[in-house]
Amino acid sequence: MAPSPDRKQFIRDHALPFSAFLTDSFGRQHSYLRISLTEKCNLRCQYCMPEEGVKLTPKSELLTTQEILTLAKLFVQEGVDKIRLT
After folding, report:
1. Which residues are CB-neighbours of 78 under 8 A, at least 6 positions away?
2. Which of 4, 13, 26, 75 is packed most tightly, with the most Cβ within 10 A?
3. What's the pTM?
4. What region holds the Radical SAM core domain (predicted)?
């Protein structure tokens, strides 16, 4: 079902610019992005990999290389100047 014309207009009038989502609750503007390319890290650091492990995401649900590049370009257009690939 498509949004009604009134709803579309409301969204246009009240939607925050994408860059607003890069600002935290203290008003700090973030200009970096971390993209995790894999969840198969074998370091097993306590803070991100519990001893019992985690269920891995099916490959069909992971972003493709093209999707990652598209997202990175969108963030750069919004002011991101550093991207860390992990």
Report:
1. 18, 19, 22
2. 75
3. 0.63
4. 25-86
